[in-house]
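Input sequence (281 aa), recorded before submission:
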Amino acid sequence: MEIIHRVDYRDSWDKGLRNRLERENIKYKISEDFNKKDGLVVFNISESHPYWNRIEKKLRGFLGWFVYGDTVDTCFSDAEILNSEWSLLYAQNAKKYPEPFNTWSVNPNNYDQFCNKCGTHIQARPFRIQKETNWGNFHFFTFIIGVGIFTRKQVFDVFRRNRIRGVVRNDVLINHTGKPADDIFQLMPDRTTQGGLVIGEKVKVSTCRKCGNKKYPNHGRGAMKYRREPRLKEADILYTNEWFGSGGRVAWREILISNKVSRLILEKGWKGISLKAVEIV
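Predicted structure, C-alpha cell format:
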C-alpha cells in the first residue's frame, strides 16, 4: 500500500519548485491558463519518496492551504487486492462527455430526482454519447467529468461465463440517432448495500439542506472500512448505499466488487480501471 499525493500549484507562486522536481526526477505536467502568463503544475509524489518531507512542509506551511492543492490517494498492490475480500472499482481512463454537451451538466436528462443542490439522483435512462469510441488497448472508461463506468461487450461476456452476480449491461445511446452504441455499455450494479460505511472521527459528513441526503468525502487514505452485511452474500457487484462527493452538484455511489471479480480483472489484465482494497469489519 502506497499513499500518493497529487499536488498542484500555480507556477508563479513557487517558481523554484519545478527545478527541484526535475533534480529529484519527479515527473510533472504543466498547462497554461487562458491568458498564457501562468501555468498549473501538477505532480504525484508518494509518502515514501525521499523528497516527500520537504513537500509536506510546503503543504502544511502557513500559506500551504492557499498556494498548493493536495489530493490524497492510495495505491494497492495486486497481492493486496487478491487478499482483499472486497474492493472498490474506479475508472481511470477519462474521455468524452455525456450528451447533450451544452446542457447535460445543468440538466442531466437521464436522471430522475436530481437534486441541483448536492447532485444526488436516480439514473432512469441511458447516457447519450457523441459517437462510438476507439477502445485501443483499454477496456473501461469514465466521462471526463467523472460520471459512470463504461466498458466493452467482451467484459460482460466474461462476467456471464463466470456467473458474476448483480451487474447490469446498460446501453449507451448515440446522441444524434438515439440508437445503442455497438460496443459501449455502462456497467451498473442492480442493487445497493444496506449501508455499512465505517466513519472516522475526522470525516465531515454533509447533509443537503434541499433534499436531506447525506454525502461523504471521497475516501483517499488507506482501505475504506465497511461492515459485513447480508447483501454482500447476494451479489458480486454492488453500489454502496452511501453517497460520496465534495462540494456542490457532484455525487456518486461507490461500486464494490467481490474478490471473484477482482481476480478476473487482474487475470485478464483489463486496462482503464484501478482497484482499492476494502476492509470488511
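Checked by second reader. The radius of gyration is 20 Å.
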